[in-house]
Amino acid sequence: MKPVLKLLRDGVDRLTMYLPVILAAGLALGTYWLVRNAPKLFEPTTAAAPVHEPDYFMRSFVVKNFLPNGDLRSELFGKEGRHYPDNDTLEVDQVRLRSISPQGLTTRATADRSLSNGDATEVQLFGNAIVVRDAATTPTGQQLPRLEFRGEFLHAFLDTERVKSNKPVTLIRGKDQFTADNLDYDNLSGVANLQGRVRGTLIPTMTPAPAAPPARAKR
C-alpha cells in the first residue's frame, strides 16, 4: 500500500511542478482562440473606383460665376444639366453661355450640348456650335470687329480667351470669312492659326476719298 501512496504523492508533486507551465500554455491557447474568433470591428475596406455617373440633375437652370470684386464673369443657361463628381464636370443640353472678359468684351456661345469644368472657364461645345465676340472699342480707341466661330465642335477657354477646334470650322471677322480644317485663335494676341484646307473671302473696305483742297478766290 505504501508504494502506491508514494507513487501517487510523486505524481502530484510532479504535476504541481509543471502546473504553471500548463496554465501558461492554456492561457496562450485561449488568448489565440479569442483573437481568431473575436468579431472584427474595423475591417479594412478597399476604396471603390470612381464611377462616371451624375450625382445630381438640373432643368431649365442658370449657373453664374463672379469675379472677386463681385462683377459678373459668366453665366451659363441650359435645358438640362448633369454633374459628374469623379472629374467635376457639368454636361448641359441646349446650352447658352455669356462671358465678360476683364477688358469688358462680351462673348456668347450656343450649342446642342456642352461639357464644362467646375467653374465654367473651359467649355467644349458639340453640335451646331457658335461662339461670337461682339464688336467693341478698346480703352485705347482700337476698333475690334465682330468675330464669329461656327463648327460641329468648338473648345472655348474663357480665362485665356482662346477658341480651338480640331474639326472643320468657319471664322467670320467683320465681313471677311474663312474656313479651315482646324483652328487655334488667341484673342489676346489677335492671331488666328488656321490649318488644313484653308479658304478665305476678303471684302475690301471702302476708304473715304481725301478731301479736296479749299478753293482760292482769284483777284
The N- and C-terminal alpha carbons lie at a distance of: 176 Å
CATH topology of the largest domain: lipopolysaccharide transport protein A fold
Arithmetic mean pLDDT: 80
Q: Structural class of the helices, strands and pairings? A: alpha+beta
Count of discrete domains: 2
**The CATH top-level class label of the largest domain:** Mainly Beta
Rough outline:
elongated
SSE pattern: HEEEEEEEEEEEEEE
Low-confidence residue ranges: 211-219
The CATH H-level superfamily of the largest domain is Lipopolysaccharide (LPS) transport protein A like domain
Regarding quaternary structure, what we see is single chain
The CATH architecture of the largest domain would be Sandwich
- Helical proportion? 10-25%
Number of strands: 14
**Number of alpha- plus pi-helical segments:** 1
The radius of gyration over CA amounts to 40 Å
- Bin the strand percentage: over 45%
| Main β sheet profile | 12 strands, antiparallel
Structure description:
The chain has 219 residues and is an alpha+beta fold. It has two domains: 1-35; 56-201, lipopolysaccharide transport protein A fold (Sandwich). Helix content is 16%, strand content 46%. It has one helix spanning 2-37, and strands at 56-66, 72-84, 89-100, 106-116, 122-133, 136-137, 143-144, 147-157, 162-165, 169-173, 176-180, 182-186, 191-195, 199-201. The strands form two sheets. Strands 1, 2, 3, 4, 5, 8, 9, 10, 11, 12, 13 and 14 form a twelve-stranded antiparallel sheet that branches. A hairpin with a 4-residue loop joins strand 8 (147-157) and strand 9 (162-165). It is elongated.
